[in-house]
């Protein structure tokens, strides 16, 4: 199977992690990435086609004779990238648009979960301003959870104890989108399960935990994710088995009954209450970012074999091995992230070789990075890079990641200093 050409779509930390994993594959002879970042540029040929330009992506896949296209973000999948590639006979890791709609519409996801009897929070769909007060009364006594029914790039959910704030977010969402979801608040601890699936079967990757709030102690605004670790001990073997039984198996059955089965990774956002019976908070149709950066390094098997199998319904024939190590990643964010990140600043110290010691290894996962006129590394996004590490324990991995982060300079940047605190 040697000599495979792979095109990775996207340009964040997730796509750098995918390029790292694929460049270690014995099957891959050529990697392409679009639009990529300064990190992917050292492993792949970067192209300038945007991840939302479906026609451009299809043309690029044909031009480079891609044997496999790996979709990083959800937007091209919701816009039909996998459908177009399939019509041309090019395998795609990532589901067709009808199934990607699971992430594209929170209401659709709720309807699917109801039909498949998958545990999730109760909810109201609101379309008229006159219904808001009654619905808010229904879920009073706990924070209100309001979710816009559109792809909102992580900005579509408000969790608040302030009734006026909930009211006005519901009202403005009805005005802009025509409807909005009000959900019952679920108490508990969150975890992410990434499940690679196809028509023949599924493979659960080790569970991880993200840190979505901007500041230490889970304070501050929601972000795309400020750091993560894997495996997450909150997902005990018992909870993992329950998750498979009550969530993954019914979802797999539903997603594979479609004309074209789900081929890609299903991100299952879990809320685990003290009772231990997991609920679904959200589905995404892609790898999480930054969960991807610390989950892929724990897969010992060849990454191309795994992604290619999922794209071609070969998963049931594949045996996937995992490492016993722990992994952690800490995101370095630009000044002003998440509301208004400052871009275009020089990043120093991030071009160094990975750190390696008897206690583990640490490397830079690039996200919003590019090159300035003199080849210097510059910031181009809100989440600029992450320092990722593996080690024999979570403590060791966290320590290595922070040791590497200490060597990197970016004016005004911020990061969390407590990644992994729930497990440590
Ligand atoms: P989502 O985009 O649906 O993942 O929501 C963003 C964040 O809001 C989640 O990661 C949770 O922290 C929180 N959240 C969403 N739904 C609920 C819920 N029903 N109960 C409690 N927290 C929630
Ligand atoms: N880190 C959360 C996400 O990728 O949606």
Describe the structure.
The protein has 424 residues and is of the alpha+beta class. Helices cover 28% and strands 27% of the residues. The longest helix is centred in the middle third of the chain and has 19 residues, at 237-255. The protein starts with a strand and ends in a 19-residue tail after the last helix. Among the domains are: 4-96, Rossmann fold; 123-183, Dna Ligase, domain 1 (2-Layer Sandwich). It contains 12 helices and 23 strands. It is globular, with a radius of gyration of 21 Å. Glycine (GLY) binds at residues 210, 224-225, 284, 288-289, 291.
What's this entry about, in short?
The chain has 424 residues and is of the alpha+beta class. The protein has helices at 13-23, 54-63, 75-78, 81-87, 97-104, 106-116, 132-138, 163-177, 237-255, 291-295, 303-311, 394-405, and strands at residues 4-10, 28-35, 45-46, 68-71, 92-93, 123-126, 144-148, 157-160, 180-183, 189-198, 201-204, 209-210, 213-215, 219-222, 227-230, 264-272, 279-284, 326-333, 355-357, 360-366, 369-371, 377-379, 383-391. Among the domains are: 4-96, Rossmann fold (3-Layer(aba) Sandwich), CATH 3.40.50.20; 123-183, ATP-grasp fold, A domain (Dna Ligase, domain 1, 2-Layer Sandwich).
